[in-house]
Amino acid sequence: MEYVIGVDIGTQSTKALLVARDGAIVAKHSSSYRPDTPKPLWAEQWPSVWFDAVGECIAHCVAEAVAQGIDAASIRGVCVSSLYGGSGIPVDEAIEPLHPCLIWMDRRATAQADRVREQVDLDRLQAITGNGVDSYYGFTKMLWLREHRPDVWAKTRYFLPPNAYVIHRLTGEIAVDHSSAGNIGGVYDVARRGWSAEMLDALDIPARMMPERLVESADIVGGLLPEWAARWGLAAGTPVVAGGVDAAVATFAAGATRAGQHVAMIGTSMCWGYINQHVDARHGLVSMPHVLNGTRDLYVFGGAITAGASVTWYREQFCQAEVAAALALPHGDPHVLLEEAAARVPAGAQGAMFLPYLMGERSPVWDAKASGAFVGLSLAHTRAHLYRAVLEGVAFALRHNIEAGRKGSESLDDKLIVVGGAAHSPLWMQIIADVTGFPVWTIGEEVEAALGAALLAAVGTGLVTSDTAQNGWSTLIERAQPDAARVARYADYFDVYTALYPALMPSMHRLQSI
């Protein structure tokens, strides 16, 4: 039997899987960390944290395989996917990092985004790139570095996405996959599948800062250097495959490879996306080449910045009683207690509504100054009501993106696949079904992007054909069917949800300015 390793660098942890060519998961390991948030709305990470986590995960998977009697020489390839790295890592001529990576959730480049809107032809930028202008996008974060870190800018040779940087450390080769390049926005020509000289010039970003070699996500970038091969027990020269942005790779892992298939990845953030062959940036979503058949297919997505992060925030700030009570229970999980209580609350949380804009918001709102809110509170509301309102608020944000996506998709499949931490919650799966009106399915393997990375490694090394990969290695499991009565009730609440942001936006912005 032959094997591959799939690695996914996430916002709060890195995961790796050792997978047989038939899709059986043989070993897995994860390593946790946190991004640095030195100021409000800032989020960054030194790439050494990611590289160390990748090494730990690969070493543990190899060691576990050997303990099972598997010859490490039968591991034929490694693929690395990663979080959207925003600006990318500015590196010097020696490819040494000069500054932490400003990751996807960093929103410090608001002023730079405003200036781009004022000074650049937005219709032309949208037409070329398939994307809009916001501090979410990497090109605006690059402009922030140019303005606020001129010493870094002067020494920068390249901006490297997280997976590209790690792969360079592994192989000595520099290449950027098309999904990561497209997700930078602003500087990538989505029709030509290459850097846009016109937009780079308009933004005054030197073209030399964009790595010359662009590759497909299943392409081999290079061979594993002897140093790491010896340290981790792999063969020197083991092929390392390019990978891509984690949301697209997770969508691929869930089997979404054909137009209209759509997947919601709900972890720290929420990304909902579908496969299409064209894009219209005016609908407010993000686009990039897909990680399979990327010369033809696009991954078009939208998302909420704080999805699972909203749940974590609420639990940590307001649910100390449940956290303490859970310690005395066999499962030890306060979410079980919170869900039991919230399940007894009727749909709509008796008029309590939550806006999950705790770090500004991405699509389709696109407002770094948006802020979270509970609306409709009364003395009758309890922690259980508010916990349910948080789950519902993220589900409304998901539907908000789906409605934007319908404008650009010819059709969406009649089922919604949900992956990520939210899939562990039966209550949340039912709320999502009732809010969106879609039957909700999840994948049984619960490993999402790391499994997609492993499958890309198998394609890249020839263990699996592209045609076979279209059906994926995952097993779909039905989790929830929409209830007609709750669907109708949530439709009314959704109308209120979409009206709240425009109504509160002036006050949100004023509070930010004060």
UniProtKB/TrEMBL annotation:
Residues 264-459 form the Carbohydrate kinase FGGY C-terminal domain. Keywords: Kinase, Transferase. PROSITE patterns: FGGY_KINASES_2. GO terms for biological process: carbohydrate metabolic process. SUPFAM superfamilies: Actin-like ATPase domain. PANTHER family: SUGAR KINASE, XYLULOSE KINASE. Belongs to the FGGY kinase family. This is Xylulokinase.
